[in-house]
Amino acid sequence: MKILKGYQINILKILKIALGSSIAIIIANMLGLQYSASAGIITLLSIQDTKKETLLIALKRMLAFLFAIAIAYILFQSLGFYTIVFGLFLLVFISGSYLLHIQDGISMCSVLVTHFLIEKNMNISFIGNELLIMFIGTLVGIIVNLYMPKNIEAVKADIRLIEDEYRKILRVFGTCILANKECGLTNCSIADSPSCDLVSEKQPCGYYCSLEEDFSNVDSYLSSALARAYNNMNNTLLSDTRYYIQYFMMRKSQFEIIKGIKEQLCMLTDIPKQANTLSIFINRIADQFHEFNNAELLLKELDDIKKMYKNEPNPITRDEFENRAILYVILSDLENFLVLKRNFVKNMDEKQLEKYWKVNH
Asked: N or C, which terminus of the chain has less Cβ within 10 Å?
């Protein structure tokens, strides 16, 4: 079992296929159907990774099979049960399936049509035999796949993990923005070093603001979380769980802004006195960073900081001007960062607010 998990093999899906295929064949045999083993193969092909995928594929394959029967009946009855006619059937059926977007049923339906070719028979009773095989195999696949272990707790764990990483990065930003007062930041640009690390030049200072590993972790966590959120949505038939996908997409957009802030920090050559206010604000964002914060109060505080910056005396030197400009860009990036969260909350409908937010307050 450990080896299978190590190779990312879906053990539950394998068990469903084995059990479901056996049940489908047993049912087909009990009904005295010809080619009963085909029901097991249909079950095997019907079991997908999620409930919604299974239902969608089943519908497409049923439509494809009806389409296949119609074409096969016309061709076999008109031209005879010959291999060359079966080749003509494939030409028409495959082309039509792609045009109708039901190509998922091509292989399965083609195999079932070979039964007509082998038996040289397309009377009503034998067509009924094939329809029953298709119906049994598909229905058993759907029923067996109704059981899907809930991964909602794993999705919530993803939220907590990602938020912890964001808080950590923000706190590092809050520390590093003041580090230059004693030891200076590495002066690098995006062009010089796309993966620039915030590293203090003097070890006694005690700051080491490298974030490359953290950024790599967040990238990986976001990808895994989105995949789990999509699976969760596709395994939930009766309720709307798009909230988690929307949430992780919002965090992904915020992460792009965080990357930009890091590059701006790398461009600082000195730290103006205004950096202290910005450092405190970044740490406050980190302290209040969680799923159920609508960012309204933080945006109000940010607006107050912007007003305060406007009232500051103009910079005297070019170096001071450039570094204060960088701080202002960082502040603007933080505003966009918070606006993304505020808009995410505003775009939630009443059902989502009731289900995902009000329950947690």
From this structure: C
